[in-house]
Amino acid sequence: MTIHLESQSDLEEAVHALIKRDPRLKPVLEIAGMPALRRREPGFAGLAHIVCGQQLSTASAAAIWGRLAAALDPFDHEAVRRARTDRLGRLGLSAAKIKTLKHLAREITAQRLNLEVLAEEDADAAHHTLISLPGIGPWTADVYLLFCLGHGDAWPAGDLAVQEGIKLGLGLKARPTEKQMAPLAEPWRPLRGAAAHLWWSYYRAVKKREGVLAGAG
């Protein structure tokens, strides 16, 4: 059964369940404090918002998204599918991002892609469904699953802040690689998404700065 993190109480319940399951996380929580749940809009708009912000500063991403949302109101996959490529370019989107959004819009219109159903799928399967789409990498997939769908078991194995937090919190000699992160997180299934929130809070408490994904909300 897929667990969803829809509210702060959902996250807190999940964190307490993690600590009972893995006592190593108790001192992590004591230092980190209870993490705050971060959510973003679901559906096509949520994924498009993340795509628009890839590899951009927060200010630049916000400006482009503001122009896009105002120009295509209401903003949905049909609006993007119908929009001319040159118009999207004038709004600030790169050719690669336009290609990604156009492809997503076509797949949704043709009912070959249902983003909402990913919330009910196994986290690893949902992750691989997303990264199989052109222009959707692991970072974008993890942000969408965690923050837009509230998937309780989504696991950002490539996130450097989570990796560094685990290294420090579990007393590892080196920061685990993305490949090593999968077996490390096995004890936390099906609550790896809650564990990620906890490790981001721990990283912030220890390093005094936000991780990339944690700042995405």
From TrEMBL:
<dbReference type="GO" id="GO:0043916">
    <property type="term" value="F:DNA-7-methylguanine glycosylase activity"/>
</dbReference>
<dbReference type="GO" id="GO:0008725">
    <property type="term" value="F:DNA-3-methyladenine glycosylase activity"/>
</dbReference>
<keyword id="KW-0234">DNA repair</keyword>
<dbReference type="GO" id="GO:0032993">
    <property type="term" value="C:protein-DNA complex"/>
</dbReference>
<feature type="domain" description="HhH-GPD">
    <location>
        <begin position="52"/>
        <end position="203"/>
    </location>
</feature>
<protein>
    <recommendedName>
        <fullName>DNA-3-methyladenine glycosylase II</fullName>
        <ecNumber>3.2.2.21</ecNumber>
    </recommendedName>
</protein>
<dbReference type="GO" id="GO:0005737">
    <property type="term" value="C:cytoplasm"/>
</dbReference>
<keyword id="KW-0227">DNA damage</keyword>
<dbReference type="GO" id="GO:0006285">
    <property type="term" value="P:base-excision repair, AP site formation"/>
</dbReference>
<dbReference type="InterPro" id="IPR003265">
    <property type="entry name" value="HhH-GPD_domain"/>
</dbReference>
<dbReference type="GO" id="GO:0032131">
    <property type="term" value="F:alkylated DNA binding"/>
</dbReference>
<dbReference type="InterPro" id="IPR011257">
    <property type="entry name" value="DNA_glycosylase"/>
</dbReference>
<dbReference type="GO" id="GO:0006307">
    <property type="term" value="P:DNA alkylation repair"/>
</dbReference>
<dbReference type="InterPro" id="IPR051912">
    <property type="entry name" value="Alkylbase_DNA_Glycosylase/TA"/>
</dbReference>
<dbReference type="Pfam" id="PF00730">
    <property type="entry name" value="HhH-GPD"/>
</dbReference>
